């Protein structure tokens, strides 16, 4: 089966963890391109963390226009999510975005409008919802095994 080609925008802490998870745990995906506006990071982070061979772009537009990725994962600084996500969706890419979505209601609205219009926003990364320990805790509570939950701390 052909792998889904992923482009990652933002090669910081989260972008790097996406690369590692894809490389080590999701055989259906392959990282084919990364983009980061910070040239130093774009060069040094993939080397330091041994990214798989992939195309590197300092311009988000160049990555999107290259058409080498099927889908995009956005892991840039949160203040840039609206600009980057809207651009990706309007270019026709399905996008995954790390949380949080945006920094204010205006940007959130902008993203949601583009998502509604293009139907390309696939997922917002509340990754802990898929953590097996939390799934188990949720199940225990749902099943009533420990009675009513009266308070919680994070
Ligand atoms: N680090 C975490 O534990 C964590 C956890 C949950 C969510 N997040 C979210 O993930 C996102 C990234 O966090 P991080 O810790 O990886 O940050 P980071 O600062 O390590 O990395 C962000 C990268 O995005 C790049 N960037 C910024 N604007 C860009 C643009 N317009 N185009 C391309 N690249 C751009 C920066 O140069 C940087 O390399 C944030 O939204 C953050 O809230 C982070």
Task: Please describe what this structure looks like.
With 154 residues, the chain is an alpha/beta fold. 42% of the residues lie in helices and 19% in strands. It is built from six helices and six strands. It is globular, with a radius of gyration of 17 Å. It starts with a strand and ends in a 12-residue tail after the last helix. Bound molecules: nicotinamide-adenine-dinucleotide (NAD). The site of nicotinamide-adenine-dinucleotide (NAD) has 22 residues, from helix 1.
What CATH architecture would you give? 3-Layer(aba) Sandwich
Mean pLDDT, to the nearest integer, reads: 93
CATH-level-4 superfamily name: NAD(P)-binding Rossmann-like Domain
* CATH class label: Alpha Beta
Task: Please count the helical segments.
Answer: 6
Largest sheet geometry: 6 strands, parallel
Anisotropy-based shape? globular
Q: What name is given to the CATH topology?
A: Rossmann fold
Strand/helix succession: EHEHEHEHEHEH
What binds here, in terms of ligands, is: nicotinamide-adenine-dinucleotide
The parts where pLDDT drops under 50 for at least 5 residues are none
**Helicity range of the residues?**
40-55%
- Please report which band the strand proportion falls in: under 5%, 5-15%, 15-25%, 25-35%, 35-45% or over 45%: 15-25%
**Strands side by side in the biggest sheet:** 3-2-1-4-5-6
Count of spatially separate domains? 1
State the end-to-end distance. 41 Å
List keywords for this structure.
154 residues; Rossmann fold; 19% strand; globular; binds nicotinamide-adenine-dinucleotide; alpha/beta; single chain; 6 helices; 6 strands
